[in-house]
Design brief:
The complex is a heterodimer of chains A (179) and B (181). Chain A contains one helix and 13 strands; from the N terminus they run αβββββββββββββ. Chain A is mainly β. The radius of gyration of chain A is 23 Å and the shape is elongated. Classes of the chains: A mainly beta (179), B mainly beta (181).
């Protein structure tokens, strides 16, 4: 009986030590911004691509013959990444990866490039590169020497529409992962 | 007591506690799914079913140097003039365009400021617009496609006829621009 209790206490002690050690890992979160609305588009007989500028929201046709009816700029969402933890644990280099998810078959195709702007954070934290080039997937780093931080950026993309696209709503999903 | 705290069982319980503690506190990655949206609407097409014709007419009276012939946009087709002689069997008709596109969409019609009629290059002005779905749209210039995505517009105008114009049939091209509003 005594031996069993000793094992129990020792085992739980080990679990407690592991738990306490792990409890000091940082907590990362990515905000849930509103959807980026490209607006109304009249599709045509060719594949068409529109660039949404993350900095301004200006939408310009890059290729094809589709026509965007919406005259106003797109409202570009801001993504905010926060890191919080007990002292010291946000002092790392974090990789931010923006990747394609799903799209609406028959109406649109996968996002060819993402673009970011207005990268913002506080002293002690930098983006690498400072101005990431458009790409898909788009990968860049947040280099932190702080105990905690908040970093944000505007995120937009190039939208592509099928030739003779089926009318109706189309949705692109994409993910922002930080690790 | 012994049944619950046998050696292996005690290790398993504590191992589980440790695992739960680890799982709950090692959140060093995060991911969020974001959406982009757009609405695709049907392209518009316009076909011409009739070219504008003021029909057969002549002006040999003693009226003003230039007199107007008004071709009505709304059905039934009609033309009026106080000075010009309007002759029968000239096939007069407003320009008629059939528009198809996204059901329920508003569209805008922009006629030219003026055009010329043949023969003689007579001036055509004061365009008027009539829509099957919306009626007189001369002022608003806005029409709406019906539930089937269809509308027909009729384009009328005034033909400015110089005194001395001989008997002939006058037609005009009317290059209106039609776009989604």
């Amino acid at each position: 009986m005594v031996g069993i209790l000793q094992k129990t206490v020792s085992g739980c002690g080990l679990a407690l030590i592991l738990g306490v050690g792990a409890a000091q890992a940082e907590t990362l979160s990515v905000s849930a911004p509103a959807a980026l609305g490209v607006g109304k588009v009249v599709a045509d007989s060719s594949v068409s691509r529109f660039h949404v500028d993350a900095a301004t929201g200006v939408v310009t046709r890059v290729s094809g013959t589709a026509i965007r009816l919406t005259a106003t700029n797109a409202a570009v969402p801001t993504v905010t990444i926060t890191c919080s933890a007990p002292p010291g644990n946000c002092k790392k280099t974090y990789t931010v990866t923006i990747t394609n998810g799903t799209t609406t078959s028959g109406r649109s195709t996968s996002i060819p490039t993402f673009n970011v702007s207005n990268l913002s954070t506080q002293a002690g934290v930098t983006f690498s590169p400072a101005a990431p080039s458009p790409a898909a997937p788009l990968v860049f780093s947040i280099v932190s020497t702080n105990n905690s931080f908040t970093a944000s950026f505007k995120l937009a993309f190039d939208a592509t529409f099928n030739s003779s696209a089926i009318t109706g709503s189309t949705v692109w999903t994409y993910s922002v992962a930080v690790s | 007591m012994r049944a619950f705290l046998s050696g292996p069982a005690a290790w398993r319980v504590c191992g589980m506690i440790g695992a739960v503690a680890l799982t709950a506190t090692t959140a060093y990655a995060a991911q969020r799914t974001i959406a982009g949206t757009a609405t695709i609407i049907r392209s518009m097409s316009v076909s011409t079913t009739a070219q504008m014709s003021f029909g057969k007419l002549q002006y040999n009276g003693a009226g003003p140097a230039v007199a107007a012939v008004v071709l009505r946009a709304a059905p039934p087709t009609a033309r009026t003039s106080t000075d010009v002689q309007l002759l029968p069997n000239g096939g007069e008709t407003p320009a008629i365009r059939v528009i198809t596109g996204e059901p329920g969409r508003i569209y805008r019609v922009t006629p030219p400021a003026s055009a010329t009629a043949a023969p003689g290059g007579l001036s055509v002005t004061a365009f008027t617009l009539w829509s099957t779905n919306s009626g007189d749209i001369t002022s608003s210039r806005l029409g709406q496609l019906n539930a089937q995505g269809r509308d027909t517009i009729r384009i009328g105008a005034s033909l400015m006829v110089p005194r001395g114009t001989k008997n002939d049939t006058f037609t005009a091209n009317t290059p209106v621009t039609i776009t989604y509003d």
